[in-house]
Amino acid sequence: MTIASPPAGPVPWQPEFALAMVRDMLRIRRMEERAAELYGEQKIRGFLHLYIGEEAVATGAIRALEAGDNIVATYREHGHALLRGMPMRTILAEMYGKREGCSRGRGGSMHLFDARLRLYGGNAIVAGGLPLAVGLALADKLQQVERITACFFGEGAMAEGAFHEAINLAALWRVPVLFCCENNLYAMGTALARSESQTDLCAKAASYGVPTAKVDGQDIVAVHEAAKKAQQHVREGKGPFFVEFQTYRYRAHSMFDPDLYRDKKEIEEWKTRGPLHTFTARLKAEKKLTEEQFLALDAEVAKEVEDAVAFAEAGSWEPVEDLTRDVTAP
Amino acid sequence: MRKISFREAMREAHHEALAKDPRVFLMGEDVGKYGGSYAVSKGFLEEFGPERIRDTPLSELGFTGAGIGAALGGMRPIVEVMTVNFSLLALDQIVNTASLLRHMSGGQFSVPLVIRMATGAGRQIAAQHSHSLENWYAHIPGIKVLAPGTVEDARGMLAPALADPDPVVIFEHAELYNMQGELPEPWSTDITQAVVRRQGKQVALITYGGSLPKTLQAADMLAREGIDAEVVDLRVLRPLDDATIMASVAKCRRAVIVDEGWKTGSLAGELMARIVEQAFYELDAPLARVCSEEVPMPYAKHMEQAALPQPEKIVAAAKGLLA
Predict the structure, then answer these.
(1) A172-185 pLDDT per residue, tens
(2) The whole model's pTM is what?
(3) How many other C-beta atoms can be found within 10 angstroms of the C-beta atom of residue B20?
(4) Within-domain flag for B63
(5) Which of A312, B12, B142, B245 has a CA-to-CA distance to B161 between 20 and 30 Å?
(6) Domain that holds residue B83
């Protein structure tokens, strides 16, 4: 895939809204940069899958949803959880494995859940969340609840049978699922072209009679505007919609990944299209954002991050006596 | 008391659940227009409509996962999988999502889902439709595994399974659907305990599901030879009711486990391990088990029957312990 050319034309948003978008992306970015450091300090262990480079996708898409909608995400879901409304403190505490984490430290970075926020994980089986999303949407349809389910997954998931079974069911039953494919071009270390005979992901979805859109995932404006239209279609009861967000992961797949499968030049090229700096540059050029404003925002986010780290540090460990709690209902 | 078939008992249980609770719906391959591959849901599509009697494509993984999602979303789905062999296509959703969501989320989510499937051999449908993999499911923390072996349990187990806040897998041995039995009114069934189906003093025959009729038959044969066998029906394969099992072992001091699964890595093996751990000093003889031969299930009738536990094999195993 060639890198899309930088977006042209003015940002069609009020400065307050644009600033909120910058803030959201910045919160994900700074939280994860700090998480990577904490991983180096061995405060966070296990797998840690960073979303750095892809922030515009979750930010633009989740801002297009309503607060009562369902979200199903993957193991690269820190940003989705944060923007759905999970406090950064709770996320960091979960990464630490502390009892104050959203899942009491049982899930870790890959398994952020919040029943109250209707965040259904944090699924670390590739494509595992897709059938679940269809079922959530089916339950809403059967109960006549006006709500949609947004399901995030990577392009790697589209090689799984679960994708094909789930999108077929969703289309067949016309249930309200917004399929959000975060195409970052690599399924762990395997490039799309090395794993799929058909690299046009929208063509796959379209073969099930589902309407699709291909979007520059590095452009927050494009992401948000496309997500707004797509979610409207789903919300109006017209059945599922599939959006491919073309994006790129700047960091390795996980902290265990030596990142040997892609050219450093490719990474550097994609970085020139970073969602955060390209958007802030646009806003500055349009005089919708000043450097002072940006720095103030960054400082505010840095404070939130440090507060979250302090909260996680001060957290407690679940007592071992609780090990078998919640395997089944008491 | 009234005479009823296992199939009719299952059908009544489903009808009652659907009529009582609008959150209940049935989904699976050919549950609707076809009437259910074992005719458990015959006529339901006309009565309850296609939203609640939901025919699915051949997508075991997809619709089982959708069942999990629907359960999370407030419904009480019953997912019917044609046979245990096909359920392997859905194993990922059952093992990697349904069973562990509660624990992994720190107790935030319940998955009140019932998954039903036919199991077992005896109808000459060969190796891809005849296995007994109950123990694969019984291995998994976070789910309950039931195996009705009587018409009373066929009639009574569905309601408590639907009321359970956790995933429940029900194994229906395909040889049982046509079995006739007396259904007491009112029937009483729970999904927590094993039951002694026949009282005896000399040897405990411990079994479940499709092997229960064969084991009861073996007990009759033993009685004719003057041997007083007790028959324990496990009913619940996870969690196992150790108390009932150990009480029977302590009373009879000898035990034979009858399990249609293969011997290696079987539920029978788990039961033997538990008896050795908990009741070793009660035993007067080594434990014995009658399982399926370790071969894929053959088609030819004589070969299939040779591969399965049979009353004669159970009798021989029991007599071996008393010799």
Answers:
(1) 999 999 999 999 99
(2) 0.95
(3) 11
(4) yes
(5) B245
(6) 2-183
Give me the domains of chain A, ranges plus CATH numbers.
56-87+114-293 (3.40.50.970)
Q: Which residues of A touch B108 (CB under 8 A)?
A: 102-103, 113-115
Interface of A with B in 69-88 (CB under 8 A): 70
Nearest beta carbon to residue B165 from set A102, A327, A329 = A329
The string of pLDDT tens digits covering residues A251-296 is: 999 988 999 999 999 999 999 999 999 999 999 999 999 999 999 9
- Span A14-33, pLDDT tens digits: 999 999 999 999 999 999 99
The CATH number covering residue B111 comes to 3.40.50.970
Closest by alpha carbon to A175, among A203, A146, A206?
A: A146
**Inter-chain touch B73–A135, beta carbons under 8 Å:** yes
User: Which of B64-68, B121-125, B202-206, B316-320 has the least mean pLDDT?
Assistant: B121-125
| Number of folded domains that form chain B | 2
Angle at A54 between CA A52 and CA A60, to 5 degrees: 130
With an 8 Å Cβ cutoff, are A120 and B165 in contact?
no
Q: Is residue B266 part of a domain?
A: yes
CA A273 from chain centre, in angstroms, equals: 18
Partners of B102 on chain A (C-beta within 8 Å) are 326-329
> Does residue B70 sit in the same domain as residue B131?
yes
Between CA A255 and CA A238 the distance in angstroms is 41
ipTM score of the complex?
Answer: 0.94
* Residue B302 falls in the annotated catalytic set: no
